[in-house]
Amino acid sequence: MQHTFIPVPLPQQTYQIAIAPGGLTQLGLWLQDRSIQSVKLGKKVLIVSNPQIWKYYGEIVQESLAEAGFQVDHFLLPAGERYKTLRSIQKIYDYALALKLERSSTLVALGGGVIGDMTGFAAATWLRGINFVQVPTSLLAMVDAAIGGKTGVNHPQGKNLIGAFYQPRLVLIDPDTLQTLAGREFRAGMAEVIKYGVIWDLELFELLERCDRTDQYRFMPPEILTDIITRSAQAKADVVTQDEKEAGLRAILNYGHTIGHAIESLTGYRVFNHGEAVALGMVAAADIAVQLDWWSAEAVQRQHQLIQKTGLPTALPTDFAIDAVANVLLTDKKVKDGKVRFILPTQLGQVKITDQVPPSVIVKALAGM
Amino acid sequence: MQHTFIPVPLPQQTYQIAIAPGGLTQLGLWLQDRSIQSVKLGKKVLIVSNPQIWKYYGEIVQESLAEAGFQVDHFLLPAGERYKTLRSIQKIYDYALALKLERSSTLVALGGGVIGDMTGFAAATWLRGINFVQVPTSLLAMVDAAIGGKTGVNHPQGKNLIGAFYQPRLVLIDPDTLQTLAGREFRAGMAEVIKYGVIWDLELFELLERCDRTDQYRFMPPEILTDIITRSAQAKADVVTQDEKEAGLRAILNYGHTIGHAIESLTGYRVFNHGEAVALGMVAAADIAVQLDWWSAEAVQRQHQLIQKTGLPTALPTDFAIDAVANVLLTDKKVKDGKVRFILPTQLGQVKITDQVPPSVIVKALAGM
Questions:
Q1: Distance from CA of B161 to the nearest CA of A (A)
Q2: What is the DSSP string of B284-326?
Q3: Residues of A in contact with B103 (CB under 8 A)
């Protein structure tokens, strides 16, 4: 069993990202191991999950924690982005109160990005902050949502408008849990993996190019997939370490997201999932970069092929209202003083940030899709 | 006009506490002055206040900000602890959304502790954290609530159970605003001032002893009152700087609060306000300290006299259910692994933390009041 630990050093504390096939059984031990997790945790642990994930992995995680001496309870929330609300957070609060959780108690998020975001926000805001551990079970959560301390819920009028930056004590990634992930969700996670290749890690990009298939878990050799997850987690950790609160560099993680978010929003979050929207956003950003003479047509082609091989969309629906995109872009929460920020590649593994993209260039990019 | 700036250096940022009689007019300038507030703020500022405070100080604060070039809006919440709820936070969110506040925008809390706590929590959690400025107008908020980064709201079943640690960019204390504060609220703030004297600052204690009266704003010379506020703010800043997240030292600020909270809770927050409950808690803690031979009867007497001179209560209602206190103590959120922590004086200006107070000693202290 190959275990990799990626340290994430931040001003307040350093925490580890463990990438460990079969590692769910180690959670309790690692939380008690002062060389891995440096804070002495209280006895009480509350696992937050959803019914599907709990069915697969609840018992193994609960046993691991109980064997290490923790007093373990669990609380299940229905699966799905539409439950990522303050109402769900209030339910976690009520349960935390019933269990008399203390400052030293721990919330463990066992699930995908929705569970991780909500559990993290509840941990950040209950008693002004209790311990928090991420056990992501979706590829998207493993390589993106679980790393970097972003937590929160949706406002009825916008995604992730309510939240906090709050760091976990440990992120435990067990790639074996991906075997129960739906294919479409796996591909959504791969969109973010491809993103890291383009913005940060040329070797990761080339590793993905060498894979015969990147569209399904079962077609990828476990050791290659673990390597891909490790490189992606390392990329995310590198960036957030240098910019914890999204003041500067961290913006590069939004490659493909500026237009991606607009597409998700305009299609009511029903047509594309997040990863698919990001894939479309990367296609659009690449076209913008070529129009501005920042990126080569050859590199764009390589990105395009990789996205297609992964089974992610590269074309917009024929009835898509392109004109509406500009409007949506201006209401994005990353807009600063009214200017829309784009992340554009300059070569594979490198990007630049700009707020100087003419609207006509954006429309042309979308029209070409 | 005497202006004192107390720097509060924390790992993420240093901010200033300005103690400035008549300083409300300076708010806009100081937020733009890089030597006082080091972050470049966006144009949009939302002042959160309540109707009473807004009537007195809204215009002057709004003008000060507008003259410095900010685009200013305000949002009023009803006054009172019972509105310190997630529901009120959601109303701030809705207004923030309507104004399209951005990451660089600023929430200004203009009011007492309730407004400060709620505005801070909204600032901490909107877009995962926007800029926040405290303009406390009650004595309690000036010397306690506005300093240290505690923000939050009440849960239906417990005070301040929901919240976050979140630091302001600036705390502006204008002692002149105390002229509109109700006498009972002034005395409640004085309870915390006396607390700083006992736990941290003997000179402050002696300064209070030398005052002819400490029970009303109008009987205190402005320069003495400003000095008292400055020393109190400095004490709070000293402690929170050394222990931002309440891991250790910060616990000493809970002198008088262990039993104070229990008394507040048992009387349904209707008989005593927070400061009055803290005064009672200090009387009880002093008695405990004497029973344990930690503190002298003479020092206890001096504290007692100061509390009485300030017009704060020193005796429990005759029908008070003393036996219920122990029960309530165990549900306090500061309980750690089931042990109740007390802060007890060893001499004037110094305290120690202990979780070894026998229940019989607590009951005896309360029975004697």
A1: 5
A2: HHHHHHHHTTSS-HHHHHHHHHHHHHTT---S--TT--THHHH
A3: 246, 333-334, 336
Best of A13, A38, A125, A153 to substitute, by most chain B Cβ atoms within 10 angstroms, is A125
pLDDT (tens digit per residue) in B17-59: 999 999 999 999 999 999 999 999 999 999 999 999 999 999 9
- Catalytic positions of B: 128, 150, 192, 236, 246, 250, 254, 257, 261, 274
Dist CA B161 CA A302 (whole Å): 52
Q: Which has the higher per-residue pLDDT, B150 or A321?
A: B150
Distance between B286 CA and the closest CA of chain A, angstroms: 27
Q: B183-367 sits in which CATH class?
A: mainly alpha
* Bridge partners (DSSP) listed for residue A74: A47
| Paired strand residues for B331 | none
3 state SS of A6? strand
A245, containing H or E segment: none
Picking from B127, B151, B335, the nearest residue to A333 by CB comes out as B127
Instruction: Output the CA angle B219-B313-B342, nearest 5 degrees.
Output: 115
* Residue A66: CA count within 13 A, CB half-sphere: 9
Closest CA to B344 of B304, B309, B310, B293: B293
Using CA coordinates, name the residue in chain B closest to A126: B162
Whether residue B193 contacts residue B228, with contact meaning beta carbons closer than 8 Å, is answered with yes
Which architecture, in CATH terms, is A4-180? 3-Layer(aba) Sandwich (3.40)
Tell me the chain A residues in contact with residue B97 when contact means C-beta distances shorter than 8 Å.
155, 157-158, 161
Mention every residue, 6+ apart, whose C-beta is less than 8 A from residue A105. Answer: A41, A42, A43, A44, A45, A46, A96, A99, A130, A131
Q: Which residue, among A102, A46, A43, A40, has the nearest Cα to B330 in the 3D structure? A: A102
Query: pLDDT tens for residues A332-363?
Result: 655 555 678 899 999 999 999 999 998 889 98
Query: DSSP letters of A304-362?
Result: HHHHHHTT---S--TT--THHHHHHHTTSTT-BTTBPPEEEEEETTEEEEES---HHHH
The residue among A287, A18, A310 whose CA lies nearest residue A147 is A18
The tens digit of pLDDT for each residue in B137-153 reads: 999 999 999 999 999 99
Nearest chain A alpha carbon to B152: A128
pTM of the model: 0.92
Q: How many CB pairs below 8 Å do chains A and B form together? A: 94
SS3 state of residue B352: strand
Extract the runs of DSSP E, i.e. beta strands, from chain B.
4-9, 14-19, 44-49, 71-76, 106-111, 131-136, 150-155, 158-165, 170-173, 342-347, 350-354
Element of type H or E holding B252: none
CB-CB: which of B86, B93, B158 is closest to A155? B93
Instruction: Record the tokens describing residue A138, joined without a space.
Output: 């979706």
Structure tokens at B237: 């800043």
Contact B218/A at CB under 8 A: no
Q: What tokens does B310 get?
A: 């300030």
Q: Enumerate the active-site residues of A.
A: 128, 150, 192, 236, 246, 250, 254, 257, 261, 274
Neighbouring CB atoms inside 10 A of B294's CB total: 16
Domain edges within chain A: 4-180, 183-367
CA atoms of B262 and B137, how far apart (whole Å): 27
Q: How far apart are CA A163 and CA A155, in angstroms?
A: 10
- A152 shares contact with chain B (CB less than 8 Å): yes
Residue identified by tokens 């300038």 is B29
Of the partner residues B97, B102, B331, the one whose CB lies closest to the CB of residue A336: B102
Report the C-alpha gap between B21 and B19 in whole angstroms. Answer: 7
Helices B297-309 & B183-199 angle (0-180, nearest 10): 160
Strand B14-19, strand B170-173: pairing: parallel
